[in-house]
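We modelled the chain as a single entity of 225 amino acids. Its sequence is:
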Amino acid sequence: MPRVIGVRFRPAGKIYHFDPGRNRIEPGMSVIVETARGLEMGLVVSGEEELPESELVMPLKRVLRPARSADMRQIEKNRKKEKEALSRCAAQIERHGLNMKLVGAEYTFDCSKVIFYFTSEERVDFRELVKDLAAIFRARIELRQIGVRDEAKLRGGIGPCGRHFCCASFLCKFVPVSIRMAKEQNLSLNPTKISGVCGRLMCCLRFEAGDYEGARREKRAPDGA
């Protein structure tokens, strides 16, 4: 079985597997890897282990090297460039009169590509915008339309409970949440009480749904539940 490590490229993001090669890699280290988007720096979240090929996306890409001080400085430069990229892209969106809300910008590690995230209630023809942005940034441009839950995950923030958003803290992927889960937990069905900042049902409604269902089956549910 292939020997792999798990790498994450953003907090609470999906874990991708890479071949560590001859590098000595431990959890908590930052590494430079090659991805479909180009060179990227990611955080190692799981140490070396053997996994069957059926659980992996083959062929595996190899870790190029552990991140160096110069790599960390490059990331800091990229973060500053992303702020400028946001304002310049927003100006171009306004110039083209496009109905889209710019949410974030992201440079790949080697700055060969700039990704802009946006939300919109309609399909947007941004072909001319891409041409202008490519000329401005002299890099490959990707415009990615995301939903309101993805926007909350990308931006982060504090929820009604006073804690950081679950989606931006530890939820790697969104799971279906239904109004039935709120009913079974005897919660108020007032939308303002059971909706997150994104306007959708709160992800945490699902956390205890299984316990309530099990309690009902075993006839040990609390009064009123």
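As a brief sanity check on the tokenised model: The two ends are 47 Å apart (CA to CA). The first helix runs from residue 69 to 96.
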